[in-house]
Amino acid sequence: MFELKWVYELILLLYGLSLIGYFIDFVQTNRKANRTAFWLLSMVWVLQTFFLLTQVFIDKNLPIMTVYDGLYFYAWILVTFSLIINRLFRVDFLVFFTNVVGFLVVLIHLSTRAQNDLKDHGVELVNEMLVVHISLAIISYGFFTLSFIFSIMYLLQYRLLKKKKWNAKLFRLGDLTKLDHFSYISVILGVPLLLIAIILGVTWGYISPDTFYWYDSKTLGSFLVLFVYIVYLVLRVVKGYQGRSISIFNSGAFLFLLINFFLFGSLSNFHF
């Protein structure tokens, strides 16, 4: 059954991309992102339904008799509800967080089933999950770094304008509005990637034979970094903060990210 490995990976990839799309729509009310996320999630539902019907009609097994089979049926229900709600109603908050829970449930079920059904390939899938966890976390840090650079450029440009220093540097830094917008977009892209990375990391820790420490400094630090950048989005989207004040907050958030990466990482029991 090793050929199923790529199907499991495809489901997780489609679900992860869908989650990013729903997050962008949740923050920006972006209908294009919502439609893309809906069709990606629909593909996940088709694949899940295929496996479900295979178990019922070919394997003669109703997938509710064990805990892990129940997880699969539960995940299928969540995806189904999410698609219906997204299609018939406009409840972005509910749709996004339903998909976060659904992604976690699918991840636990598929990785556990892979270990049981795919033998060595299941172990390989779990190890790949760790690689993806680390990769997505680093990519998200890359977006947060870009956001920080845009914020610093904004603050420098703001200072030059305040002092009325009309020189070549002023024009090379770029427009204040664009710098503020690019900084915001970078955070929007970084947050869902870090969220997915954390979900992957927690799931890996749950199913891996290695010891997982909830109270590990890097684990707690990653949750705090995510929280800080969510606070940034709340201040930006809900409270309407823009310009200099949010750029200062973003710069502080990046300093905390550096503390988590270098200091907490060096104190961690299993992170690098």
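Second entry:
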Amino acid sequence: MVKPFVPQLVYIEPRALEYPLGKELHEKFTKMGIEIRETTSHNQVRNLPGDNHFQQYRVAKSTLVVGIRKTLKFDTSKPSAEYAIPFATGCMGHCHYCYLQTTMGSKPYIRTYVNTEDIFDAAEKYMQERAPEPTRFEASCTSDIVGIDHLTHTLKHAIEFFGKTDLGRLRFVTKFAHVDHLLDADHQGRTRFRFSMNADYVIKFLEPGTSRLDERIEAAAKVAEAGYPLGFIVAPIYLYEDWKQGYLELFEKLEDKLPKSATKDLTFELIQHRFTKPAKRVIQKNYPMSKLEMEEEDRMYKWGKYGIGKYVYQKDQQQDMKDTLGGYIDKFFPDAKLEYFT
């Protein structure tokens, strides 16, 4: 059982204390007896404890920085939404394959932003620009926000904010089962609550520090009972020796545990494992003992739009994945919608 995240060390930007959430978090962490340091900016956290990279990386992943989000221009977030909404950055999980290792580079600490009203105002403007079309906002492009929300309740406020809008839709994905405080949020059906799911083998060996499969399924059932539209991202789909059986067992468990009401408006997103050359170097440095297979010669190179290509599975393997998992979705959840395979 993975316990809810508690930071070992907290940094606070002085200006964050001008916001109610900043004050509240400062009080909360003081009462909890956690060491609090000041930092001029959430981008400038230095001198983390640790004698070497391996130690400092692990300390950083258990460090929370409370700051202000200055950039209120939202990135686009295809294929899952129109925009990424930035409430947090970083994650306490230790998934070996995670792309945040490369994108966050030397700053793997977790950041939470306290100027939530500014972020909501920016979202409001984006919604107006697209009206009368609805606008989807993805809250988990650069973090697993559920993993820290029992401390901040930012996500809960966001769910209720979007619940009051006509054209806003919120979505996020998590590997954590700590969802109880979100069950009574007034979501009005405008938030799609997604869980990242995988074969037990992948969770066990490649996703340390995250909730286990059965815990995630139990949390998904609670979320469905609370009336949220539910979704599953099966990612990364990873070809290990017994992968077909592993993914079959995942779908059997899901069908067994989910309330029938959850299957009416259920979505699936399927994402195969991929890696870049720079990512491979970083992963090998952060997780030297990992079982993650990244052999370039076994993969197909796919050019990216910024000139940085990635290694994906071979065409016939991709087809096999799509047919196999697509078949499981059809068999166990015939009413569900497969949003994409990539």
